[in-house]
Amino acid sequence: MITLTLMDSGNILFEGKICAVALEELHLHEEILEPNVVSVMNLLRRKQLFQDPIIVDENSLVVLDGMHRVTALRRLNYDFIIAYLVDYFNPLIKVRRWCRIFSINNKVNHSLMENLISSIRNSFDADVKLCKVHEGEALLNEREVIGYLYAPPLRETYCISCNGVKDIMKIYRLLREIESHIASTINADISYAPDESINDFSSEKNLILVPPQIKKIEVIRYATKGIVFPPKTTRHIIPLRPFFVNIPLNLLRKSHLVSSLKRLNNIIDTILLQKEGIRLQGKIIIDRFYEDDFIYIFL
Amino acid sequence: MTKRQLAHLFMLYSLDSFDDFLAPMIKDCILEIKKNVETIGFKVIDWRLERDSLTLTLFLFGDSKKKKNVEKVVDTTFNNKLGDQVRLRRLISSFLDIPTQLPIRTIELSFFSKLVLKYAKFLAFLAKQHIDINDFLLEPLTQPHEISLFIKRRERTLRNNSSRIKTFVQKWQKELETLNALAISMLYLIYNMQDFLPLDVLVEKLSHIFSISVSEIYSNLSKLVTKRFLLCEENSIKLTDLGKDFVADLLDLINLIEKKAIRRLPGLLEKVMKQPTSADKYIVYRSGHISRFSIGKIFESLILAGLEYEVASKVLDGVCEYISYEDIIAERELVTIIKSLINLVDPTGESTIKYNYFINTREYIHIRYRGYEIPLSHEFLSKIIMEHLGAIRDKRLSPALLNHIASKTLKAIRILFVSATRDVTREKPILVREELLNCIIENLLEETIPFYKMVKETSIDDASLIREKIKTAKEKFERILVSEDKKSKTILYDFITGAKLLIWSILFALNYWPHPSVISSATILMHVVRDERKKSKDVKMFKRFEEFARRASQTIVQSNLILLDSLTSAQIKSIIELAKFGSRLCDQFLEKIDSTLG
Question: CB of A65 within 8 A of CB of A236?
Fold first, then answer.
């Protein structure tokens, strides 16, 4: 099994193993978006290669990154997928949140905010209060509120709470509805941004909905029960992430040649050993922005 | 003034397509990029094109603060020089994490490390048990199973060199007693990789090769440090002089034994014959492609490469010995094994050069074509062949025939220039002139593809050519029907000629170049007709074509399936029936030609 390692002064800080796993054993933790699955299926059919390993917690087999690839391969009747098995509870693996950015054509002003807040109150029986950003964060951490709305041009923050809802799954499902409600009420386009970069979205035409920070244990607890969070609930940062393993898709189906998982992993090791690996500094754009510290490329 | 920070920059581009003309075009771009980036303090260290993944990678070195400028220069050069011919998209541009960590290929080392591991186990056993090598060889029962398998083939060589083995064991007694075999094999890898490597990179590579956990690797490295074989400095590790001495001594011993043991192989393919035929072994390529391991294919490649039978058979025996316990073999590992064995069996290096030339034809032979130097490849030849055919008539060629002509041409050019291969010091590839290649292909097509020469040399149009050929075909069929001696093989000869001309003409009319073999042409026609039938209104005519092609090929095959030199009455009956059918079909087809082609 090909293991990627980060060490410091002789101490192993992090390791991840690249190998094949049975698709049926994996647990998803987020809902998929249908257009994304279709696009992944088309790409797989065209390239006939599985390019980048999905990220999976080795102990629970919960998929941390790669829901669409898992779903696409399942629909295409494959048996295996290439995964990067990691110890999710390694402190170097970070789970972060996605802030919802609402962009409108006009300026965000007091009247728009008053109308919006009133409609959220009425539609969701929610309690929406003016607060400060740090108060909002503290209340979110305590799960006293389900999220807060930040209006950059007004420098105003509104905490949203809903009938004492504290369960993270319920919070995210409620937020999904609130998210759609806001978008339709103020006629906004939605995009998602890492919470660390919300300052980049402080335009006078933007409104930001900040959700609570999810915990690793919550991800595992729900996923292993087969309950999935709405899309864009988690954002995982892996210290060392592999790319471009480029394994032919025909190997991911049981056959005379691929008689068992052990055999397949033997083949995968043999393929990857023939490639050269290089480690690059992370925080770069490939098909999207990767916040990981390092990335590992197979050439 | 800000201080310059030097770093290795890695850039990865994706390509939307790949053909053999692309490689020299990219090479031209790289030459210009080299000049352009030099002006901003960067150097292009390496670049490569990957066909399978359609990617281009570049390694550059220079001032890290000028990354954006370099990206702009590289992107602009590609855009300007390649234009619309190929679309390049930059996927990655990032600095290498550790400057010294350029790609390190590990697979070639994998085979040798396994061999060293076997020796290490054997030598450590001798040291730990304090057994004399000669006594050990005399008592097979005392030998652990794994070691007895290892010494089986080398027994005589080990006995003949027992004094060298004793000297080695005595010199390194303490070390062999306390170190395990894995640690010794790891020393060999560190010796071969680089003298200085960042610790995590080294540990990672070792864990890949030995397929064991990082912690196990690390614990062995710690033992080697304790034994003063390795020196650990912060995040790096390197061999001490003692470590270097040990590995050099060990490698001397292994080389001596292996060289003598391999040369001692009888070359009677005895190892090959002993291989269980049911054993499923597979070769895994870097691209992920997998093919069944075939000793016959290796033998064929060695003979085609021009190796003497004696060398080839000894090499084969050696290959079987080395891979006997593996069911999955990496292609690169296999090539390493074969090359090492060839070197041992023929130390002059002549055979190795021949083999290298054979397996790396792309690197050895380039064609100067339209101002570019293009590596000789099957794909390139296929393209040129289609261009030649297209210049005469815009017709299709069956992929099997194209593949056949391209592969034979490639082999022919390779053999033609075999005398031009020199030793490993050759710097430039063999350059084949465009005129020569064109001449070979043209001549080959004239002699191979039916009607090609006639169409090329005369101004005959398709309809006239078909009429002429059909007329001859009909004459042949009629001759069978009026023949008085139907038992003679002349009727078979006439039938094959008539059927061939009729099938070729139909294929030609359907816009296909015929195949020189009548059976292959009949098969192609059956496939083509099935497709054409869907588009055409004249389904009946196509059904007749298909039926004639099927029955004609069956009759020809059955006529060949006889030991005695005379036709059976059933065969004669079938030929006469088909001659009648063929004759009618010629008339119908001529009518069709007159009404469609004019």
Answer: yes
Whether B345 and B315 have beta carbons less than 8 Å apart is answered as yes
| pLDDT value of residue B140 | 67
| Residue A295, SS3 per DSSP | strand
Looking at residue B276, what is its pLDDT?
52
Q: What is the pTM of this model?
A: 0.82
Within 10 angstroms of residue A133's Cβ, the number of other Cβ atoms is 14
What does the pLDDT average to over B65-89? Answer: 87
The CB-side HSE value for B29 (13 A sphere, CA atoms) comes to 24
Q: What does the DSSP 8-state code read for residue A212?
A: P
- Nearest by CB: A279 against B101, B232, B329: B101
**B507-516 exposure pattern, b = at least 16 Cβ within 10 A, e = fewer:** bbbbebbbbb
Specify the amino acid at residue A219: V
DSSP string, A61-115: -BEEE-HHHHHHHHHTT-SEEEEEEE-TTSTTSEEE-EEEEEE-SS---HHHHHH
SS3 B93: strand
Q: Return the structure tokens found at B22.
A: 């692309």
CB contact under 8 A, A279 and B96: yes
In this prediction, residue B570 carries a pLDDT of 84
- Residues A224, B557: Cα–Cα separation, whole Å: 63
A residues 203-262 closer than 8 Å to B (CB): 244, 246-248, 251, 257
pLDDT band for position B521 (cuts 50, 70, 90): very high
| Residue the block writes with tokens 């001692």 | B264
Distance CA B68, CA B76 (A): 12
Is the pLDDT score of B207 beyond 90? no
DSSP bridge partners of B36: none
Sign of CA dihedral B220, B127, B264, B272: negative
Alpha-helical runs (H) found in B449-509: 452-457, 462-482, 490-509
Task: Please count the other Cβ atoms lying within 10 Å of the Cβ belonging to residue B324.
Answer: 14
Dihedral angle sign, alpha carbons of residues A107, A108, A109, A111: positive
Q: How many CB atoms lie within 10 A of CB B50?
A: 18
pLDDT tens sequence across B434-449: 999 999 999 999 999 9
A-to-B residue pairs, Cβ atoms closer than 8 angstroms: 119
- Quote the percentage of chain A above a pLDDT of 70: 100
